[in-house]
Amino acid sequence: MTSDQDTFIDVDQLQPGIHVCLDLSWMDHPFTFSSFRIKNQEQIDIIKTMRLGKVRIDPSKSTVDPLQKIATLSIKTEEPLAMDMHLVEEKRARVDALKQQREAATRVEKQFVAAANIVKNIGNNLFSQPEKTIKEASTLIQQMATAMLSDMDVAIHVMHEKATTEEMYYHSLNTTVLCLMLGKELGLSAKDAHILGLGALFHDIGTTELPSTITKKKEPLTKAERSFYQQHCDYGAKIGKQVGLPPTVVEIIQNHHEFVDGSGYPRGINAEKNSLNARIVEVVNTYDELCNHNDVSKSLTPYEALSLMFSQQRGKHAADVLNTFIRCMGVYPPGTLAKLSNDMVCIVTAVNSSKPLKPVVLVYDPDIPKTEAILLDLEKETEVSIVKSVRPGTLSQETLAYLSPRNKLVYYYDSEHKKPQQKNA
């Protein structure tokens, strides 16, 4: 894709600082990107092996001018060296990694859909078959907790949102996944993690007693509506007792809107009277509600939500829980639109909880079909990094269509995520 600012120069005029645009298939060169600013002589030497003669550059993105063109005698020169095999192997390894990342995304999507269907059935059958339904919920939580606690590196992916009628189930599943991730990082035992998972899964069960005109309202609630809405915590606790949920789970349901400074509801209790599990659900629930507002236009980006919670609401949340959550989700959580150090735009698709500053990103490149879009693991691709978060409204429709940011953020974990091989000291 050329532009009015593009210029063609001889390969011999290249020098570090020039932004080059290789008019080749992504597979026909060893570089991470087809368009990049040259960093060193080694990259120039590699380009010379490609027998391009002339190469397209973008002066507006270059920090230096091309070298002076030197007239040469028309004599036969040596054939350029073939591309080093190690560069070819590096490219193949990058392609294999890209394939594995796509396979992981597909696998997680299937696991998410299966779990969402189970959660939906649990919600539908809780009142008619409480004993059986709680057993099913317990089995689901046991599977999720076991998978997360046994894997040192839990990869959290952002999913495609489905039908809007399922939002309640996705919020419950979102909260459960992120709570279990957070509980793992806080060192919860398997028993406590199981209680946490059940509490997170059923934390909003009391909203079934509220009219949809309140639970789905996009405009701010009136004082009377807000007072009515806040009763869902007590309604949920009552339902939890009726269907036979353990008291430790009921406590989470009742207290998941209580803040550590006593400004929450329904009872306004402080941290000393609230369990660690309830404090965990409170932090995750607050984050998910900020990201997934009923009115999509009022939803915050993941980056904005975490920034708000840390900078303006810090006194409301348990410090150890909030700090650990931010560390797990990374500065740029899954679903974040961001700008890379090479000026390209990307969306964060997955974050490794043990390496939150090095997420996996999908990069917008108009020269590459969307179906073949580059996925970069920033832990391995050290030549680029995220420099800042960007809002969807600042990007073109073409870019947004390519990256497909979700109106609703839905997360799930990779239960088959492989631990890195440990090297002997």
Keywords:
425 residues; 11% strand; alpha+beta; 11 strands; elongated; 4-stranded antiparallel β-sheet; 7-stranded antiparallel β-sheet; single chain
Explain this structure.
- The chain is α+β, with helices and mostly antiparallel strands.
- Helices cover 42% and strands 11% of the residues.
- The protein contains 13 helices and eleven strands.
- The protein has helices spanning 41-48, 85-125, 130-150, 167-185, 190-201, 212-215, 223-229, 232-243, 247-255, 276-291, 302-311, 319-329, 397-403; strands at residues 7-10, 19-21, 35-37, 54-57, 155-159, 337-340, 345-352, 360-363, 375-377, 386-389, 410-413.
- The strands form two sheets. Strands 5, 6, 7, 8, 9, 10 and 11 form a seven-stranded antiparallel beta sheet that branches.
- A hairpin with a 7-residue loop joins strand 7 (345-352) and strand 8 (360-363).
- It is elongated.
- 36% of the residues are buried.
Brief account:
With 425 residues, this protein is an alpha+beta fold. Helix content is 42%, strand content 11%.
Tally of helical segments: 13
Task: Report the sheet with the most strands, covering strand number, pairing sense and barrel closure.
Answer: 7 strands, antiparallel
How far apart are the first and last residues' alpha carbons, in Å?
Answer: 48 Å
Number of strands: 11
Radius of gyration: 26 Å
List the helices and strands and how they pair.
Elements: E1 7-10, E2 19-21, E3 35-37, H1 41-48, E4 54-57, H2 85-125, H3 130-150, E5 155-159, H4 167-185, H5 190-201, H6 212-215, H7 223-229, H8 232-243, H9 247-255, H10 276-291, H11 302-311, H12 319-329, E6 337-340, E7 345-352, E8 360-363, E9 375-377, E10 386-389, H13 397-403, E11 410-413
Antiparallel strand pairs: 1-4, 2-3, 2-4, 5-7, 5-11, 6-7, 6-10, 7-8, 8-9
Helix pairs in contact: 2-3, 2-4, 3-4, 3-5, 4-5, 4-10, 5-9, 5-10, 8-9, 9-10, 10-11
